[in-house]
Amino acid sequence: MKNIPKKVLILRLSALGDTIHTLPVAYAIKHTWPECKIGWVVEDKAQLFIKDNPLIDYCYVLPKKDWKKRGLFSLQNIKEFKNIIDSINRENYEIVLDTQQLMKSAFLLPFLNIKRKVTLTGGREFYSIFSNEIYPESHKLFDPDYHVVKRNLEFAQHIGADTSEIKIILRDSNETIKQKIDNLLRSTDKTKKTVGLSPATTWQNKHWYEPYWSQVIEYFKDRVNIVFTGTESDQELIKRILSGTDCKNYINLAGKTNLEELAEVFRRCDAVVSPDSGSAHIAWAVSKPAIVTLFSATAEKRSAPFGDNCYVLAPEIDCRPCLKKKCKRKDEKNKCCKLIKPEDLIDILNKILI
Predict the structure, then answer these.
(1) Distance between CA 142 and CA 152 in Å, rounded?
(2) 162, 225, 229, 295: which could form a disulfide with 314 (CB 3.0–4.6 Å)?
(3) What class, spelled out in words, does domain 7-158 have in CATH?
(4) In a 3-state reduction of DSSP, which class is residue 134?
(5) Residue 2 pLDDT > 70, yes or no?
(6) CATH 3.40.50.2000 fits domain 175-353
(7) pTM value?
(8) What is the Rg, in whole angstroms, of the alpha carbon atoms belonging to the chain?
(9) What are the two backbone dihedrals, phi and then psi, of residue 348, each rounded to the nearest 5 degrees?
(10) H/E element holding 274?
């Protein structure tokens, strides 16, 4: 039996979805060894669900945004970097897990006084040059048929943690956030179920066909509370979707919440519908709502929320998953975005909401 670690450091600097997909590693370690202390190095943009997370004892935030503004070799940057490294080394970690597997995380390793520097094969950018414990991956990094969470859990398995239970834990919302969401959702009908719709992503070819959203909304407009979420830039998309309906029973929160507040919105929903996006990952992480994820260009077996309360709709077409931001088809652009039909989503939501 391997020695029980007292302190483990996780390197997962970015992005937000990737940090959520890595949280089950922290859960597996804590679940196996409750007394083990876990540290996490993360960039400022992705710290939201890591800092103050009940699984994480020490959070080290790299202020990348500030560092870029000052210039790479700013004396202030060097001083801040040294302070972060010193604070890590004071904790005497026994193991560091480089789950990022890029040079931007690997470059930290030479500065860390940690005996075991662990990573998998299959990373990029000479990521393994500073690791001293490299073990073989079971699947390729971008294998479309192997979930990224399960691949991440191989780090926990390697150090002896029990990974039989896959779980994500986030910190609870504070009272200020809860009161804000209470106010934003005050007009919902408490006798009806609430469905969150997050129709936008950053990839155009991950969007579901807009008229199909309209048909689903038209079907459910008097049956449930409809809550739109997204950013301010998603307003035009939401307006176009609503223009295909005569629905008046909706709340549009696009641009009105930050990501932590969005998590609280999803806690109030009975179901959330989204393309493959950060919204789907956040809804999965809060555990409460049922989630329906609509896939097109990306791989559902690699990145979809999974579990008893998760549902996936993915079209069958020879070119997917292409994992491309722009469709390469010559006959019909973004064809896969139209192959999931409104009735498919309606059927699943009816099962969830009954």
Answers:
(1) 12
(2) 295
(3) alpha beta
(4) strand
(5) no
(6) yes
(7) 0.91
(8) 22
(9) -65, -45
(10) strand 271-275
